[in-house]
Amino acid sequence: MHAIIPVAGIGTRLRPFTHSLPKVLVNVAGKPILGHILDTLVAQGVTSATIITGYKGELVEDYVRSTYDLNVRFVEQEEMLGLGHAIWVARESLNEEPVLIILGDTVFDVDLSVLATSQFSSLGVKYVDDPRRFGVVIEEGGFVNRLVEKPETPVSNLAIVGLYFIRRPQALRTALASLIENNMRTKGEYQLTDALQLMVDAGEKFTTFSVDGWYDCGKPETLLQTNRFLLTKRNVMPTAPQGCVFVPPVHVDPTAIVEHSVIGPYASVSKGALVRNSIVRDSIISDQATVADIALDQSIIGENAEVTGRFSSINIGDASIVRLSQ
Asked: At a CB cut-off of 8 Å and minimum separation 6, what does 236 contact?
């Protein structure tokens, strides 16, 4: 199966971390968001992918090429004109082979093998209390009858969660072409949801599959929630150095240095980080960051950042320095 992964977004809700990194390279549970997505796809038999880049796309390409032995094509979305436009930019990947479209800012835990034998296209969905932030589906007789992008008045609680299995990609290509040629926009953008509705109107049958294990990485608070989930799935507990205590679940990279500190629960310490004389819980310490003489809770420390002092909760971007007198 071929995967299409759009990652062109700027990630404004994850600032200050996305001032220096594309959103999909922000660290969670010891590796970039995109790394978790690709690990899951490779484990489930995906052998090739098209990644749609935009903001700081060269960093995305460098990361993937240096980390994965995967047949990957990179396509740039030069203008941010919506998810439908992003897939249109990658239309050369919409041919005879079924494709799986995965949004690059979510981590998912679902068995995709059932899709390989499905006769129909299928959309990953999850029941949500407030559907106004999502595209939603309305079903009739076991098939999708209508799709609505971010409805102001709730019409369904089945939210589309960013996993789209397209059995006949050329039909999607035709629908996207119709959007672009007729300048069909919703809220100023070309929406993938609208293209899928055109497919339904043309007779394409869509089923749905439940995705309970769906974790958003789009905001600091949801990034920390995803960090907690991924850590609870780990079966390996790192050994604490002498003078330190690790409270599971935690991730501490082998290259990190931890001295006279308590790490966890729900804390991840990434490559080359230094934690000294500190208590770190429910937090993410990114690559090469330094944390000293501090207690941190529900915090995110960016790459190469340095924090010392008395904060109990802080989100600090890459390459920043914060020192607080004791």
From this structure: none
Residues 195 and 264 in one domain: no
**What is the tens place of the pLDDT at every residue in 195-251?**
999 999 999 999 988 887 888 777 888 889 989 989 998 878 888 999 999 999 999
> Domain of 286: which CATH number?
2.160.10.10
pLDDT tens digits, one per residue of 24-33: 888 888 888 8
Q: Do 73 and 109 fall within a single domain?
A: yes
pTM: 0.85
- For 135-154, letters b (16+ CB in 10 Å) and e give bbbeeeeeebeebbbeeeee
Number of domains present in the structure of the chain? 2
**Best CA proximity match to 224, nearest among 9, 7, 17, 12:** 17
Instruction: Report pLDDT digits (tens) over 64-115.
Output: 999 988 899 999 998 888 999 999 999 999 988 899 999 888 888 888 877 7
Q: Which domain holds residue 75?
A: 2-221
E-only strand ranges, 83-172: 99-102, 106-109, 121-127, 135-140, 143-149, 158-166
**Distance between CA atoms of residues 4 and 173, nearest Å:** 13
Backbone torsions φ then ψ of 177, nearest 5 degrees: -60, -40
Helix (H) or strand (E) holding 84: helix 83-89
Cα(134)–Cα(103) distance, integer angstroms: 13
